[in-house]
Write a structure and sequence with these properties.
Elements: E1 2-5, H1 10-20, E2 26-29, H2 43-58, E3 61-71, H3 89-100, E4 107-117, E5 123-135, E6 151-153, E7 158-159, H4 165-171, H5 173-187
Parallel strand pairs: 1-2, 1-3
Antiparallel strand pairs: 3-4, 4-5, 5-6, 6-7
Helix pairs in contact: 1-5, 4-5
The structure holds inosine 5'-triphosphate.
C-alpha cells in the first residue's frame, strides 16, 4: 500500500513522516514536477485540493497538509498565504515582524488541515489542529522550520524552534491534527 505524501516543503515532510512511520503504508514523496495550485480560501479546502489532485494524477492514495500562521493583530494574516508571504523563511519572518511592529497584541495561532484521498480523488479523512501562541519580537532557537523561531508557546515556555521534535510533535497544530487522524486512519479498511 503506497501513500503519496503530497508536499514540497521539506520541514513539513520530515514531521509528516514522523507521524506516519510504523503504519502499514509505504510513504512515497510526491514528484517535484507535480505542483498543485492552491486556489482554496480555507486551509481545509487547500488540503483537500492537494490530496485529491495528487491522488488522481498518480492513481495512488495521498495525504496533504495545508497549514499556516494566523496573527490576531493582523486580522489573521498571513493565514492561508503563509507560504506566499515571502521568498524564504527569513523573508517571511522579517516581513511578519515588521508588519506587527511593536503592537502589544502578540496573540497568534498555527492551523493545520490534513486530508487523505483515495486513488479516485475521493476524500476519506479530513481534520484540523490548532496551536495557540505568541509572536516574539525576535527569533529564538534553531530547530524546526518556517515561522518556528518567532512562535512562542506559553505552556512550554519555548518557541517551536527551541523545542525538541518530540515536544513540538505533541503540542503543535500538526501534532493535534495527526492525533485525531491516526486512530481513524489505522481503522480504515483498504482494498484494491
Ligand atoms: P506544500 O503545499 O507543498 O505542502 P507549502 O510550504 O507551500 O508546502 P502551505 O501552503 O501549507 O505549504 O504553507 C504553509 C506555510 O506555513 C509555510 O510557509 C510554512 O513555513 C508555514 N508553516 C506551516 N506549519 C509550520 C510549522 O509547523 N512551523 C513553522 N512554519 C509552519
Amino acid at each position: 500500500k503506497k501513500l503519496i505524501v503530497a508536499t514540497s516543503n521539506p520541514g513539513k515532510l520530515q514531521e509528516m513522516q514522523e507521524y506516519l512511520t510504523g503504519l502499514n503504508w509505504e510513504l512515497v514523496l510526491k514528484p517535484a514536477e507535480l505542483e498543485i495550485e492552491e486556489t482554496g480560501v480555507t486551509f481545509i479546502e487547500n488540503a483537500i485540493l492537494k490530496a485529491s489532485s495528487v491522488a488522481k494524477a498518480l492513481d495512488k492514495w495521498a495525504i496533504a497538509d495545508d497549514s499556516g500562521l494566523a496573527v490576531d493583530a493582523l486580522n489573521g494574516a498571513p493565514g492561508i498565504y503563509s507560504a506566499r508571504y515571502g521568498k524564504s523563511d527569513l523573508d517571511r519572518i522579517n516581513r511578519l515582524l515588521k508588519e506587527l511592529g511593536n503592537n502589544q497584541n502578540r496573540q497568534a495561532k498555527f492551523i493545520c488541515a490534513i486530508a487523505i484521498s483515495r486513488p479516485s480523488g475521493s476524500i476519506v479523512l479530513q481534520t484540523e489542529g490548532i496551536c495557540h501562541g505568541e509572536i516574539l519580537s525576535e527569533p529564538r532557537g534553531d530547530g524546526g522550520f518556517g515561522y518556528d523561531p518567532i512562535f512562542y508557546v506559553p505552556s512550554q515556555q519555548q518557541t517551536f524552534a527551541e523545542m525538541s521534535s518530540e515536544t513540538k510533535n505533541k503540542v503543535s497544530h500538526r501534532g493535534l491534527a495527526f492525533e485525531q487522524l491516526l486512530p481513524k486512519f489505522k481503522e480504515l479498511k483498504v482494498d484494491y
